[in-house]
Amino acid sequence: MCGIVAMMSREPVNQRIYDALHLLQHRGQDAAGIATLDGLHFHMYKAMGLVRDVFRTRNMRDLTGNIGIGQVRYPTQGCASSNQESQPFYVNAPYGIMFAHNGNLTNAAELTQELYETDRRHINTTSDSEVLLNVLATEISRVTQTKSLDAEGVFEAVAAVHRRVRGSYGCCAVIAGKGLLAFRDPHGIRPLCYGTNVAEDGSIEHMVSSESVTMIGLGFKVERDIAPGEAIWIDLKGNVSVRQCAEHAELNPCAFEFVYFARPDSTIDGINVYGARLKLGEYLAKTVREKLDLSEIDVVMPIPDSSRPCAQQLAQELGIPYREGFIKNRYVGRTFIMPGQAVRKKSVRQKLNAMPVEFEGKNLLLVDDSIVRGTTMREIVRMARESGAKKVFVASSAPRVMFPNVYGIDMPTKSELLCGDGKDEAAVAEAIGADAVVYQTLEGLKGALHDMNPDVPRFDCSCFDGVYVTGDITDEYLARLDAARNAPVAKPAPDEEGDEAGEGKSTLA
Ligand SMILES: O=P(O)(O)OC[C@H]1O[C@H](OP(=O)(O)OP(=O)(O)O)[C@H](O)[C@@H]1O
Ligand SMILES: NC(=O)CC[C@H](N)C(=O)O
Ligand SMILES: [Mg+2]
Description:
The structure is a single chain. The protein is α+β, with helices and mostly antiparallel strands. The protein has 17 helices and 21 strands. The protein has helices at 14-23, 51-54, 57-62, 108-117, 128-143, 151-164, 213-217, 255-261, 273-291, 308-318, 341-351, 375-386, 425-432, 442-452, 462-465, 475-486, 497-500; strands spanning 3-8, 31-38, 41-48, 67-73, 89-91, 97-105, 167-175, 179-184, 193-198, 204-209, 221-225, 230-235, 240-244, 267-268, 271-272, 299-302, 326-328, 352-354, 364-368, 392-396, 436-439. The strands form five sheets. It has a seven-stranded antiparallel beta sheet with strand order 3-2-4-1-10-9-11. A six-stranded antiparallel beta sheet has the order 5-6-7-8-12-13. The chain has a four-stranded parallel beta sheet with strand order 16-19-20-21, sandwiched between helices. Strand 19, helix 12 and strand 20 form a beta-alpha-beta unit. The protein is globular, with a radius of gyration of 23 Å. It binds 1-O-pyrophosphono-5-O-phosphono-alpha-D-ribofuranose, glutamine and magnesium ion. Glutamine (GLN) is lined by residues 1-2, 73-78, 101-104, 127-129, 408. The site of glutamine has 16 residues, from strand 6 and helix 5. The active site is at residue 2. Catalyzes the formation of phosphoribosylamine from phosphoribosylpyrophosphate (PRPP) and glutamine. Pathway: Purine metabolism; IMP biosynthesis via de novo pathway; N(1)-(5-phospho-D-ribosyl)glycinamide from 5-phospho-alpha-D-ribose 1-diphosphate: step 1/2. This is Amidophosphoribosyltransferase.
């Protein structure tokens, strides 16, 4: 779940793109990059690491220009540890295009072959984002064979991209000498919004971003979400054109954004993420009431950070005291999006520390937003018991994660999911060492999100219900992903369990 940002102004944009990436850090911790356009010249700097570690003053100084894009990466295809696959990506024809992508293509392998054989384009990495950029470049080339590039031509090219590409994509691109483009996939799986700011000289500045928090943080006004299938084109004079470029577009935002990925202070497709998490707590309270004996629970306790709003609301609904027993080391990042199981496991203990005073002799209801691989909960339950807890109950604000995700969350195989084999609540409790486990129901998840915005027709809940909104996901495709994920790698890192199984390496299928 990467984060992308684009900006156009009369002033330099480098520092503000940096600040925006900082605000999107929770969406990708592996690599970061910024590209700017100064006249007809692109400047780019990208590297592995967190935003604050990647960019030095000298790098920032070189990023001159008034238009730019940036990306923080959480890899879902290609190589997790390759600087080359960090973004933005660049092609020199037509015109010169810089490109950033959030999402995951499900026909990248077919497109790679098609690009080589039909379009005579070579893809030199295993990143689906490079594939997507080359499809866009091919289609812009096709349009400009007979005319020069204008808004109409750009929209024609994006329409052709929608016809060729499958999967999820929120994208932004700078075309040298022409303007700034952003577009969202026809299913609206990944978020993308647009905002403006009136600069000191009265001119309008433009921003496109994965999440509205960047706009709030940088003093921009959030204008609106970019609709599924829609493209927005801002030419060098600042003229804005918007067009629906997909034949069939339907909004299916990813439910996992609201459960875990997005920042609580963002609003996506009309749903405030914090509000959604409170609502999830309300629905979860109903299930907890049905399944557990409340008189047995002394305190409700969140697993920092993402579960806090849900746990607070749940405690209030149930009338049980809310207590913070785990202290988070603020210098450790999110563990779920780290590459490799060994590092994730180690990080849970480094990240969270239990305070015995909140555990000794107590019966706890631990609340997390999700239990995916079970890495966090296994460790947490053990820590709670070591700290003197009597009974440990667990509640998850998301339903059981039972199916692979192919739209931008790096869990493409069932085998890595705790409930991939269909474990019921009792089996999960046994696996993580808890006395009992309660999950949000699927109806609860959908109900909570629907309550927040009844106008969203459907949410992508594929990892919970196995329904893939793009309609192209077959068992054979999932088997190919599984085989690629579990293929032995040439030189496994000695202490990386996950990497031995090929995790974080090529999953292009
Ligand atoms: O079952 P698992 O595979 O462990 O995944 C689920 C856990 O990972 C995430 O936390 P993370 O530490 O990434 O971030 P957070 O601080 O935002 O909660 C999520 O909030 C759960 O706690
Ligand atoms: N999580 C994402 O959005 C990943 C983008 C792209 N698929 C990559 O692996 O770099
Ligand atoms: Mg967490």
